[in-house]
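Reminder to self: tokens first, then the designed residues, so the page reads top to bottom the way the pipeline ran.
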């Protein structure tokens, strides 16, 4: 009995102790829970703060590049299958039915009100087919990705030379042919050396200019580094000029100035969000592009109102007199005339053609002296003369130099593309020289301005690009080749003191890459004097810019496309003036199209003028223009 009582006491004591322990454990658990909840709350508050900081200013350079490449991929996907035609001239035979491809959205911003840029989302535009009435052909065009060609890289120059030497030893070579090849190589190296020299001169001249680009999203602009009152926010890739630097509370700040729709603004930003080039923004594909300031030349006449004329439209003095009469009665003051057309044929006989492509002179209508007299008369009547020179869509040159043209690797057959003609390569330095020599002769006979068209690579599907020999030198991308050609042209034409212009796809002003043809907006507009986007409403797929049928909204389409160009021009130190090509034809192949009568043309002109662009050119491949008063 006594043993049982002692056992009971022990058990009861253990029970009481266990009860106390349980209570203590419960208290500990409750305390832990409170601490855990508090820690979680603190963690989420901190996380929210970090995300706010990341997505406002502290977006690192690495993430910026990732986002940029992501945006590029959107363009790649959306431009996989594109319908478009650009600036076809007379004698175009066939017509094809074209379906426009869908659009893809991107966080590009466009302007919509009163000439000021707003924060609306812009659409990555996919142009359907061209082009105009009766004799115009509408070809299906495919635009590839942003110069992401994966052809095998060429060996370096030293390796090439050693291979060439071994080949000479193995075969009995024609000494004259060897000499010709050596001369060609020497000339091509000379062109590249001239470009390098021009860049080095530009770099030395601009070394005192501290221009920078914003490499983060929503970068705050402060009134001063001490008060840190936010006066503005800058977009990604905005071009600014650095004025001063200081350090406040261990943070480096830069004083900057930049352009807006309301004028120049000055303020302070954190230095970490600035870069001295666009390379961190554009990525590896465009790392060799130059954005150094370039001297600009203004046209002899401001507020150009021009129309395009084919070679055959000005083939004799009687026809020219009719165009003069038409222009005088309609308030036009400029003619864009084919000097070298889409077939590579000359308006007047040139020494350049005699040297490089003799057959290009066979259909010339004039001698140089004859057209020099005509140009003088036209200028005396008050007209501004623009020489249109088709650069790289040159079938005559390609046929004469098939060893330099774009061909299929396996068969050696020429690449014909949608135009069904052989394409020359924009990598070809000899063709660069040919085009520039033609431009010089156009300046010599009296043209006021040189305008390059088809200054691009052909539209090649990604899957087809690997099959082609593009005559690619080393690792040079499409965009680099086009910009280098323009830099070379600018230097060579400098002695003539006339503007250089470039026609580009309207899509280029909105796309984040070179749309697979080498036309990267900033790279082109920073070099030339006039950039001429072909913003024909019929070229934009239904749904672009949020418009059901862009062709049916001439004012809205032109306004939004040019707004993107204006915004992009603010990204670079020396942007070209924008002089757009406007639509003067009815795109009957577009579902939901409208007739481009006087009213539709006036709406396009008004859209440009509302943005401060007071000059334009009208395109109609058959040269059938409306008899109206152009303002």
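Designed residues (631 positions):
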């Amino acid at each position: 009995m006594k043993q049982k009582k002692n056992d009971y006491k022990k058990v009861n004591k253990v029970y009481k102790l266990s009860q106390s322990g349980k209570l203590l454990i419960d208290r500990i658990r409750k305390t832990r829970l409170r601490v855990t909840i508090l820690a979680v709350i603190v963690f989420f508050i901190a996380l929210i703060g970090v995300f706010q900081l990341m997505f406002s200013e502290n977006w690192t350079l690495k993430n910026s590049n990732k986002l940029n490449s992501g945006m590029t991929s959107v363009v790649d996907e959306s431009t996989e299958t594109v319908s478009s035609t650009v600036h076809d001239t007379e004698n175009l035979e066939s017509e094809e039915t074209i379906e426009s491809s869908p659009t893809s959205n991107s966080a590009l911003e466009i302007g919509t009100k009163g000439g000021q840029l707003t924060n609306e989302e812009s659409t990555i535009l996919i142009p359907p087919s061209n082009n105009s009435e009766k004799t115009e052909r509408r070809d299906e065009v495919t635009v590839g990705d942003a110069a992401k060609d994966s052809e095998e890289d060429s060996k370096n120059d030293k390796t090439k030379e050693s291979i060439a030497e071994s080949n000479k030893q193995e075969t009995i070579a024609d000494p004259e042919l060897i000499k010709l090849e050596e001369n060609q190589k020497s000339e091509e190296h000379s062109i590249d050396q001239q470009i390098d020299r021009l860049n080095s001169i530009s770099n030395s001249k601009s070394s005192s200019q501290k221009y920078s680009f914003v490499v983060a999203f929503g970068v705050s602009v402060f009134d001063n580094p001490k008060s840190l009152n936010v006066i503005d926010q800058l977009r990604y890739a905005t071009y600014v000029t650095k004025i001063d630097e200081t350090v406040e509370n261990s943070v480096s700040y830069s004083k900057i100035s930049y352009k807006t729709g309301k004028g120049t603004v000055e303020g302070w930003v954190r230095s970490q969000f600035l870069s001295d080039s666009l390379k961190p923004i554009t990525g590896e594909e465009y790392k060799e592009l130059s954005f150094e300031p370039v001297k600009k030349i203004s046209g002899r006449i401001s507020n150009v109102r021009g129309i395009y004329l084919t070679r055959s439209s000005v083939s004799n003095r009687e026809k020219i007199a009719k165009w003069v009469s038409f222009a005088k009665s309609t308030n036009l003051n400029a003619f864009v005339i084919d000097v070298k057309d889409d077939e590579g044929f000359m308006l007047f006989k040139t020494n350049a053609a005699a040297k490089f492509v003799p057959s290009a002179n066979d259909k010339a209508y004039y001698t140089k002296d004859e057209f020099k007299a005509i140009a003088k008369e036209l200028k005396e009547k008050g007209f501004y003369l623009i020489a249109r020179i088709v650069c790289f869509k040159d079938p005559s040159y390609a046929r004469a130099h098939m060893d330099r043209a774009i061909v299929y690797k396996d068969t050696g057959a020429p690449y014909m593309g949608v135009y069904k003609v052989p394409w020359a390569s924009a990598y070809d330095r000899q063709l660069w020289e040919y085009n520039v020599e033609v431009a010089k002769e156009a300046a010599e006979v009296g043209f006021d301005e040189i305008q390059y068209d088809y200054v691009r690579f052909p539209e090649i599907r990604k899957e087809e690009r690997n099959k082609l020999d593009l005559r690619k030198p080393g690792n040079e991308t499409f965009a680099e080749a086009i910009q280098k050609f323009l830099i070379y042209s600018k230097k060579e034409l400098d002695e003539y003191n006339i503007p250089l212009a470039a026609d580009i796809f309207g899509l280029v002003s909105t796309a984040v890459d070179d749309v697979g043809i080498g036309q990267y907006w900033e790279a082109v507009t920073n070099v030339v004097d006039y950039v001429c986007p072909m913003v024909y409403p019929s070229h934009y797929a239904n749904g672009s810019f949020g418009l059901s049928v862009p062709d049916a909204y001439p004012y809205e389409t032109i306004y939004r496309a040019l707004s993107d160009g204006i915004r992009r021009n603010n990204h670079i130190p020396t942007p070209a003036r924008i002089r757009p090509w406007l639509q003067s034809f009815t795109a009957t192949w577009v579902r939901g199209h409208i007739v481009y009568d006087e009213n539709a043309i006036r709406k396009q002109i008004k859209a440009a003028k509302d943005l401060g662009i007071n000059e334009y050119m009208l395109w109609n491949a058959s040269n059938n223009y409306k008899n109206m008063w152009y303002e």
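The radius of gyration is 31 Å.
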